[in-house]
Recover the amino acids of this structure.
């Protein structure tokens, strides 16, 4: 095992013109996070001494998006080529280091592949290549009769014979810092694109008698670059397939692994079932036997063991206790806490609402800034009027209270334990424990001989 400190350089200065976006390319989201975040993750998995990110186009936006992360930013003011980009990072890298070059727009490469590349670079230098179905546009890996790598020739500089080569350069490269610094110092830009090519150091290494190992990646998909929206969409599907595979391997049943989107980190207990078209975002934790119905969106939430999230439910920044029934068509907004054995039915919205064990809201209700006691029944059409247009106010409902249909609880207001609110009441004052409280604005009357309106005959 090589003890030289590992310094990783991530190239991310390019514009990404083909994305046709105002957003710098490396900030385009893949599985809900910037492309560059995926590359930094893979880099960090190698436990390097340091990560250097070379930025140029949209540098301020890129730095801002990663504020607080443990990387060093290197600015490449003019994009004069990949060799020039790497050169900008070299002054901060000690001579005895190992260097690994990654691309900010090659997000799917796995740490295991990078470790293989690093191991192969013990010889002095190693590049990662892949056999491409369509090599057009890529640098070709030129090998001699003995199979040793002798050079990389960019597509635009390649001869007809070289263009027939299917083995292409992925751009990922590893080697000794002292050698890299020396070779980079000798780079010229006398080529078809007038750029300082990082790839030219391969022929220099060979010229200096340093063997260059060519490590061939398993699949094109893993080392694919993202240059346009079509490639981004492909990378997204590949990332989602990996997320689905990880869940399946962890024992989760997926109705269709191709119809699940994970945009964050999902942990799941035993025998979890996820139906089609779930979107799971941020940190989502699903306990044992949790079932998620079709078309659910769950973001930053825990769902404890035995709970069922029925179809078309939206849950954000909420904690669901055990054995709850939620939805179909429920919306739990931030700050919703269900302690357990709760039922939240269709068209019920909660926001900053804490429901103690066994409390139920079966249909058509809004509970905001509410504390709801154990076994409380919230009937259809109950609304907490928590907002006076300026401030929010709390509603507190005692254990075993019953709130009849179509009642408005005008906050701040408290209902005592076992309070019973009659249907259609507008409650503006606290309702005592163990009593029926009724407040209907008008008396009921019936008008005899009343005629229904008829349709205008114009
Ligand atoms: C490069 C390789 C080519 C390889 C291909 C794989 C060179 C000369 N060629 O070509 O052999 O097959 O990648 O995709 O290296 N970048 C900078 N600063 C620059 C130029 C580029 O940061 O001045 C960054 C880009 O943002 C990008 C990466 O380097 O992340 C690659 O640059 P790109 O222009 O896409 O390289 P290619 O010409 O495609
Ligand atoms: Ca490219």
């Amino acid at each position: 095992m090589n003890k030289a400190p590992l310094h990783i350089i991530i190239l991310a200065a390019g514009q990404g013109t083909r994305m046709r976006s105002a957003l710098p390319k490396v900030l385009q989201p893949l599985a809900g996070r910037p492309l560059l975040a995926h590359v930094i993750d893979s880099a960090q998995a190698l436990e390097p001494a340091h990560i250097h990110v070379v930025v140029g186009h949209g540098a301020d936006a890129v730095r801002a998006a990663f504020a607080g992360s443990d990387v060093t930013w290197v600015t490449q003011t003019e994009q004069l080529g990949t060799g020039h980009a790497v050169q900008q990072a070299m002054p901060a890298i000690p001579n005895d280091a190992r260097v690994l070059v990654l691309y900010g727009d090659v997000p799917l490469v796995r740490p295991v592949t990078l470790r293989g590349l690093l191991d192969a670079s013990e010889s002095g230098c190693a590049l990662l290549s892949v056999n491409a179905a369509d090599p057009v546009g890529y640098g070709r890996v030129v090998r001699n009769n003995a199979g040793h790598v002798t050079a990389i020739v960019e597509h635009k500089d390649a001869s007809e014979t070289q263009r027939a080569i299917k083995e292409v350069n992925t751009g990922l490269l590893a080697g000794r810092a002292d050698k890299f610094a020396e070779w980079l110092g000798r780079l010229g830009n006398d080529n078809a694109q007038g750029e300082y090519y990082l790839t030219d150091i391969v022929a220099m290494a060979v010229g200096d008698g340093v063997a260059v190992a060519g490590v061939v990646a398993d699949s094109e998909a893993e080392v694919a670059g993202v240059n346009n929206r079509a490639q981004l969409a492909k990378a997204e599907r590949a990332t989602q397939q990996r997320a689905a595979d990880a869940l399946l391997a962890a024992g989760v049943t997926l109705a269709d692994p191709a119809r699940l989107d994970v945009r964050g980190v999902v942990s799941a207990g035993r025998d979890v079932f996820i139906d089609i078209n779930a979107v799971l975002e941020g940190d989502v934790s699903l306990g044992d036997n949790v079932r998620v119905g079709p078309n659910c969106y769950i973001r930053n939430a825990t769902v404890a063991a035995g709970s069922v999230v029925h179809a078309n439910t939206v849950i954000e920044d909420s904690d669901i206790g055990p054995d709850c029934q939620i939805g179909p068509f429920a919306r739990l907004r931030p700050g919703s806490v269900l302690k357990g054995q709760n039922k939240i039915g269709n068209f019920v919205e909660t926001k900053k609402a804490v429901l103690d064990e066994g409390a139920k809201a079966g249909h058509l209700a809004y509970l905001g800034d509410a504390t709801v006691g154990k076994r409380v029944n919230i009937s259809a059409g109950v609304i907490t009027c928590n907002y006076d247009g300026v401030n929010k106010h709390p509603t507190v409902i005692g254990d075993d209270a019953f709130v009849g249909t179509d009642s408005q609880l005008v906050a701040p207001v408290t209902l005592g334990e076992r309070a019973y609110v009659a249907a259609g009441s507008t409650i503006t004052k606290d309702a005592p424990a163990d009593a029926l409280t009724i407040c209907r604005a008008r008396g009921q009357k019936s008008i005899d001989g009343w005629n229904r309106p008829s349709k205008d005959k114009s």
Summary: The domain at 252-447 is CATH 2.160.10.10 (UDP N-Acetylglucosamine Acyltransferase; domain 1). Residues 229-249 form the longest helix (21 residues).
